[in-house]
């Protein structure tokens, strides 16, 4: 069932588990995530970045593909189709395209402008039945070969954004996208506790789910994190399985690679990664 992410995340916060957001890039990834969620009876969030949306020819294509695929595969678990790190314009496009959830990443605007734009988008998203995620404190990551460590969110700014009626909040707590550097000091649980104290029952979102040690994931969930985003780990396992298939020289027929066979090991690798994360996040059987 394609639904907004609000109810599933409120339930997760209450039940002290987290729902995984897995980013999708093509048909194979989408199919792997949906089939695994159904098999494990877990709610799930399909994340679509602006870049991935463009790659798949636009958000309308993504929305149509996901809806049709869910029908053809008889997916019964709750699924949210969510814009990841959306720009202001991107949010409008996804609302129009039939997404059920959006993230407005206004973290790079001055806080007043972030508040203004978030307020406007909350109103429109809620009128259309979508959930909305906002971000305070930018999440670091690699840019031009330099790994930025990410800002820590200011709890007062988190409260100001939370009070706008958003459904869940991504607060920077030293987490970053992509692989963590050797000298990464770990998640700032002190910041997480202060954010939680400021925003109360609002479900919190942990970006940069790849490479965070299991004990930190569990502690973050115990402190109010109800949604965890994973992208890089699926990319890595997909690439490794595809490389292995090619290096094994499986195109012996001389007819070239059959794309369905070529992408199958990568798709299976994503299923395994998604399964492992759902088990770690505790969302299995919660659909
Ligand atoms: P990773 O790529 O580090 O898993 O982070 C994904 C993410 O946070 C998407 O918003």
Automatic annotation (TrEMBL):
InterPro entries on file: Aldolase_TIM, Class_II_FBP_aldolase, FBA_II, Fruc_bis_ald_class-2
EC annotation from Swiss-Prot or TrEMBL: 4.1.2.13
Pfam family, one: F_bP_aldolase
Gene Ontology biological process terms in this record: fructose 1,6-bisphosphate metabolic process; glycolytic process
Alphabetized UniProt keyword annotations: Lyase, Metal-binding, Zinc
Class of enzymatic activity (EC top level): lyase
Sites where the protein binds Zn(2+) 2: 105, 135
Residues reported in the UniProt entry to bind dihydroxyacetone phosphate: 178, 208-210, 229-232
Top-level taxon in the UniProt lineage: Bacteria
Keyword ATP-binding: no
GO function term, MF aspect, one: zinc ion binding
Residues reported to bind Zn(2+) 1: 85, 177, 207
Cofactor(s) essential for the protein: Zn(2+)
Active site: 84 (proton donor)
Cofactor note as given: Binds 2 Zn(2+) ions per subunit. One is catalytic and the other provides a structural contribution.
Keyword Metal-binding: yes
Protein name as it appears in the record: Class II fructose-1,6-bisphosphate aldolase
Organism annotation: Enterocloster aldenensis
Lineage: Bacteria, Bacillati, Bacillota, Clostridia, Lachnospirales
């Amino acid at each position: 069932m394609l639904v907004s992410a609000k109810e599933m995340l409120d339930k997760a916060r209450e039940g002290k588990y987290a729902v995984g957001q897995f980013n999708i890039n093509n048909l194979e990834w989408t199919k792997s995530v949906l089939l695994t969620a159904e098999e494990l009876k877990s709610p799930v969030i399909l994340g679509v970045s602006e870049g991935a949306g463009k790659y798949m020819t636009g958000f309308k294509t993504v929305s149509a593909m996901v809806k049709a695929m869910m029908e053809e595969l008889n997916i019964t678990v709750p699924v949210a189709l969510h814009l990841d790190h959306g720009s202001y314009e991107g949010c409008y496009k996804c609302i129009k395209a039939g997404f059920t959830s959006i993230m407005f990443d206004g973290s790079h605007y001055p806080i007043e402008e972030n508040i203004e734009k978030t307020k406007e988008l909350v109103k429109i998203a809620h009128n259309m039945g979508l959930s909305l995620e906002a971000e305070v404190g930018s999440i670091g990551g690699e840019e031009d070969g330099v790994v930025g460590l990410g800002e820590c969110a200011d709890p007062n700014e988190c409260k100001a954004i939370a009070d706008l009626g958003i459904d869940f909040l991504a607060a920077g707590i030293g987490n970053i996208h992509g692989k963590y550097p050797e000298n990464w000091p770990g998640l700032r649980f002190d910041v997480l506790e202060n954010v939680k104290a400021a925003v109360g029952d609002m479900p919190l979102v942990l970006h940069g789910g790849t490479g965070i040690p299991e004990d930190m994931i569990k502690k973050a969930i115990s402190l109010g994190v109800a949604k965890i985003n994973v992208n890089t780990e699926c990319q890595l396992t997909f690439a490794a399985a595809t490389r292995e298939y090619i290096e094994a020289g499986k195109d012996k027929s001389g007819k070239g690679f059959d794309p369905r066979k070529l992408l199958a090991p990568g798709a299976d690798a994503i299923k395994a990664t998604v399964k492992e994360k759902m088990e770690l996040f505790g969302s299995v059987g919660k659909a």
